Amino acid sequence: MSNRTFTMIKPDATSKGHTGAILQMINATGFRIVALKMTHLSEQKAGEFYAVHAQRPFYGELVNFMSSGPITAAILEKENAVAEFRKLIGATNPADAAEGTIRKLYASSIGENAVHGSDSDENAVIEGDFFFSKLEQF
Length: 138
Ligand code: GDP
What we know:
40% helix, binds guanosine-5'-diphosphate, Alpha-Beta Plaits, single chain
């Protein structure tokens, strides 16, 4: 079991000014931020990041949305980080997300759902390395 996961604060939450509140929730839940940057994905980069979803009907919408404005990318550390972070963010669709989760509080739809969280230890490493060089991971 790895102790790291990867997250993005997506363009919807960024443009609504929720970045600080979400980072505060992340720290308050016991995650240590070990890499952090604000950036703006090009369509091409967003497409690469979500290549695993290329055959899904919502892929075009997802790529448009994720390249529509700035995001904050971060690598987080905590025991059992992947599962613990999925618990903190809540279900993909905010309508199904548990009370107190980031998506319940800040997401507006299944597409524009405020945050990303890795779904496995393996993907956490791939996704973290997509945004951060080893020199930027502490
Ligand atoms: P996650 O692991 O909870 O983020 O969910 P998935 O891996 O299933 O999907 C990745 C991302 O694609 C989600 O976080 C949403 O931003 C987006 N997405 C998933 N399902 C839909 C959908 O039905 N419509 C749209 N527009 N976007 C979706």
